Amino acid sequence: MVDSGEQALVKRTLTGDLDAFGDLVQIYQASVFNVCYRVLGNRQDAEDLVQDAFVRAYNHLSSYDQERPFGPWMRTLAANLCYNRLNRRKLIQVELEDERDAPTMDPDSSPESVLEISQEHTALYQALWDLPNQQRIVLELRHFQGLSYQEMADTLRLPINTVRSHLYRARQNLAKILEAEENV
Amino acid sequence: MSNQPQNTFQDGHPQLDDLHAYLDQELDKLAIDELENHLASCSTCQKQVDRLKTLTLRINSLPEIQMDKDFSTTIKNRIRDKQQVPRGITWTLLVEGVAAGVVLGLIIPAIQVSIWPPRLMKIQHELQAAINIFMTQIASNWIYWWTKTQFDFTQVFESLNPSIILPQGFPSPWILILVGVGAGLLTNFILLRSSFQFRNNGTNS
Predict the structure, then answer these.
(1) Do B48 and B84 fall within a single domain?
(2) Residues B48 and B80 in one domain
């Protein structure tokens, strides 16, 4: 179901109203940040990517199907951008591990908004970041964005069998990593 | 859709990735029936499914990280800054395009067809060489700016990789860049060839 207020903001943005786009940013920036953070594993990179993703979304807003909700389109776009960034990073051989954060709250967060992240969830984040890029991105698209195999294949421009195989391996690896951590 | 089930069984059990596809609701009706029949009588596979369900629940329970920053102003400023750049470039392109058109359409043919007195032949050749250099520079500048207006260079590399946002039917930036480079090379070739011809004609005469 498409939110009519959100649809109006998109329409106003398309007519050149930048403030309307600013409102869309305010609505979705936190969820887009989370996509970037899960995929990149680094708060600073995730914050940079959020901005890049919204600028890119603005430039390509005409290709967005207004019959569908804006949020999933925006988050999938961000995930794809993160994936491209990781691939590029791999080309210049920067190790993700060197830049990883421990999953923490925003240091600027107000005290009442700070929630404790349990040890279990910290372990899950770390396990997620230990996965190869392609496996991490399919997990993101499947589990957090709810994309079907075909939609993932279209998004990543990969054959559907490759996507299926990445997802299978991602879960297998994740289970192994978690199991190993629990046995420590 | 094929009447054959999608599942492949090995040693009497479905393959593990089929169990994943089953839980993801990515199998067709026939395959689901076959798998469920098997699961009803196979505790090993049922355990695998249960394990996978637990893992899925665990992944899906990952909490979102709180983020209190507001990027809307920064993003709006970035968009505004970006919008201003191409407009300037477009004017540059227009002026250069008109200048190139005038030179291409009037001055070069005029110099080429006009008959200069033999004592001024050397000057004509020098002039021709200067025009060639000038045209080459304009051509390369034009191709550079034109390409820049078409794409954000920082995103060209990204578009090489899978991307969801290029509209369907939009030609790859690399094809357009190759066309631009090709046009540049062709311009240079034509200009250099005409320059050599002039030089040869001058030498022969």
Answers:
(1) no
(2) no
Tell me: the pLDDT tens digits for A69-108?
899 999 999 999 998 888 776 644 444 445 556 665 444 5
Pick the last residue of a domain from A51, A70, A101. Answer: A101
Question: Taking all residues of chain B, what is their mean pLDDT, rounded to a whole number?
Answer: 75
User: Alpha-carbon torsion A177, A80, B61, B14, what sign?
Assistant: negative
Same domain, A73 and A38: yes
Do B91 and B147 share a domain, yes or no? yes
Residues in Cβ contact with B197 at an 8 Å cutoff, skipping those fewer than 6 apart: none
In this complex, the residue of B17, B82, B162 whose CB is nearest that of residue A157 is B162
Question: Which two tokens mark B155?
Answer: 């995103």
Q: Which chain B residues have a beta carbon less than 8 Å from that of A115?
A: 63, 66
User: What gap in Å lies between CA A173 and CA A110, rounded to an integer?
Assistant: 36
Instruction: Tell me which residue range forms the domain holding B120.
Output: 72-204
In this structure, are A124 and A54 located in the same domain?
no
Which residue does chain A place closest to B54, by CA atoms? A175
Of B75-79, B107-111, B201-205, the one with minimum mean pLDDT is B201-205
pLDDT digit string, tens, across residues B14-47: 888 899 999 999 999 999 999 999 999 999 999 9
pLDDT band at B81, cuts 50/70/90? confident
Q: Please give the Cα distance from A58 to B75 (Å, whole number).
A: 10
Across the interface, whether the CB atoms of B21 and A26 are under 8 A apart is answered: no
> Could you give the 3-state DSSP secondary structure of residue B10?
strand
CB contact under 8 A, A88 and B157: yes
pTM score of the predicted model: 0.63
Domain range for A72 is: 1-101
